[in-house]
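This section describes the prediction task in plain terms. A model, or a person checking by hand, is given the sequence of a single protein chain and must write out its three-dimensional structure as a string of tokens. No templates, partner chains or ligands are provided. The sample shown here is typical of the held-out split.
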Amino acid sequence: MDIKVPESDLGGPAAGDPEDGPAVRGRRRLGNEIKESLRELSVQLSLLNHQVVARLDLNDADLQCLELLARRGPLSPTALARSAGLHPATVTGILDRLERGGWIARERDAADRRAVTVRALRTRNAEVIGLFAGMNELMDGVCSGYDEAGLRLIAGFLRRTAHAGQQATADLTP
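The expected answer:
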């Protein structure tokens, strides 16, 4: 859903203000174009992930948890639930499915035998990598159209955008 709020409603310049010249309007238009493109990217990545999980006999939350474990793990089930924004009971079911499928291992903590950590297993990585190979090749083509300075700018923008998403999520989390 795209909700357009007039800039004047946000405390920005009102229509006809001297601050609302062509440069400001052009910058606002580009900002809106970027936000629209990010929304479209979100939809397309969601659709891609949906196709990937269907081929792996997983679901979207399973893939999200597997990705978090691969990037940030090993993690406790509680830390994984917090990172994924899911209820701990939901994560238990996800971990059961991932363990049965050979995607993860649960291990007892050597220092505290009551504690469990979960880690992603690398044995099935090739399947996931293969399913994302087409997107990776297409992204290589996109990136080849930029010089190093342009790629640095884009990488910085994406890092800052991801951080903004984390902050917005934290602000909405009870």
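For orientation: The first strand starts at residue 104 and ends at 108.
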